[in-house]
Backbone:
């Protein structure tokens, strides 16, 4: 927004420039006068709800720390990464960093990506073990290599070379306990409850979860059993839905219009070792164009990967769509491309949730979701402080209907 004073100043400059061009026309070829008016943007930081929920026992959450550092003049990406370091280091956040839910073998594998809008640079790591803050390693990839993505053992060795501490095990007592519970649910004939306590039905109409797990063991593929066991833990309140899919995306814009983003995760809980979702893939878990905006996501990574949804959202905003409409466009694309029966509920709609967090060049933002279910809010920090608006859904009801 240009103030009246700025408008008068720019108009006066235009007249003066035009006169100067006219006076020099005989001496040099005529050139169009270019009037540059400095524009500023009110800083904004947006993330999923974990950017609000977790503080690692400190005074700030991810979005408030990132916003504070941006307004203090710190580089936008540095501020965002400092923000997400809070949930990465918080053992209570079991979907990100230290203490995150491990893969099927009980090993914590982490992914992260970052994009720096002003310099058009990016970095990412996938399947890295032993480093609590993969977002910092992703930034190191961006700053110190010609590459965008390092994976597995190579990513870990790179982190070691850059001076990061490599730990043998990122599990906490809680994450290991939850992994063992998952093992018992997916293979109850071999992994027994050490307390010798069988799970009892809540009432006579409810099947015993152990009996249901045995049926899955005999009748279903390993992937089906693994996913069903994990979802049963969400239903039983043992883990949050956000931890099951386990991601934080955080995007921001600074006062000069610089846009950056970061996504960090442990990926799908109990995943097949080596599985990589959307989070470290540019255009899927994160995409930034400094002239347009940014988008990132949480939820089912495979659905996002298939549609490169974050790139799709930014391109929709390039065509003039608002952040909300661009996010809805991606959700509609995912819904249309989800045709496998195993991924559909009784209504024929996706049986999973996915959420997008969208920010444009003017500092306008939106949070959208396939369903208003599970995690229903997101986090925003502006000059008015931290807020937790409701996510706007594409579909009514819940994924399991």
Residues:
């Amino acid at each position: 927004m240009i103030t009246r004073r700025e408008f008068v100043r720019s108009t006066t400059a235009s007249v003066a420039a035009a006169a100067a061009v006219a006076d020099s026309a005989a001496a040099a070829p005529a050139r169009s006068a270019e009037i540059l008016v400095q524009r500023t943007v009110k800083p904004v930081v947006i993330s999923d709800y974990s950017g609000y929920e977790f503080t690692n026992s400190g005074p700030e959450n991810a979005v408030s720390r990132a916003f504070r550092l941006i307004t203090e003049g710190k580089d936008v990406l540095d501020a965002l990464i400092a923000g997400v370091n809070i949930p990465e280091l918080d053992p209570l956040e079991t979907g990100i960093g230290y203490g995150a839910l491990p893969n099927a073998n009980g090993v914590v594998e982490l992914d992260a990506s970052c994009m720096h809008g002003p310099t058009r640079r990016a970095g990412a790591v996938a399947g890295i073990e032993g480093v609590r803050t993969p977002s910092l390693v992703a930034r190191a990839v961006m700053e110190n290599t010609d590459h965008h993505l390092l994976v597995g053992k190579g990513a870990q060795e790179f982190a070691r070379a850059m001076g990061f501490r490599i730990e043998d095990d990122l599990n906490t007592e809680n994450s290991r306990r939850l992994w063992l519970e998952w093992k018992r649910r997916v293979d109850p004939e071999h992994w027994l409850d050490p307390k010798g306590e069988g799970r009892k039905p809540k009432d006579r109409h409810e099947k015993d979860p152990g009996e249901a797990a045995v049926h899955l063991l005999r009748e279903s593929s390993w992937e089906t059993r693994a996913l069903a066991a994990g979802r049963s833990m969400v239903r039983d309140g043992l883990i949050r839905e956000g931890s099951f899919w386990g991601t934080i995306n955080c995007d921001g814009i600074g006062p000069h219009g610089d846009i950056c983003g970061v996504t960090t995760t442990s990926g799908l809980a109990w995943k097949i070792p080596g599985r990589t979702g959307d989070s470290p893939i540019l255009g899927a878990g994160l995409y930034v164009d400094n002239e347009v905006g940014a988008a990132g996501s949480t939820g089912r990574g495979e659905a996002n990967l298939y549609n490169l949804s974050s790139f799709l959202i930014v391109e929709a905003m390039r065509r003039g769509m608002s952040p909300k409409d661009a996010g809805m466009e991606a959700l509609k694309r995912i819904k249309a491309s989800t045709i496998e029966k195993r991924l559909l509920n009784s209504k024929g709609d996706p049986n999973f949730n996915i959420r997008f967090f969208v920010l444009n060049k003017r500092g306008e933002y939106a949070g959208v979701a396939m369903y208003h279910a599970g995690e229903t809010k997101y986090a925003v920090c502006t000059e008015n402080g931290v807020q937790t608006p409701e996510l706007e859904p594409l579909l009514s009801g819940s994924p399991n209907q």
Remarks:
- The radius of gyration is 24 Å.
- Residues 1-38, 198-210 have pLDDT under 50 and may be disordered.
- The CA atoms of residues 279 and 285 lie 4 Å apart.
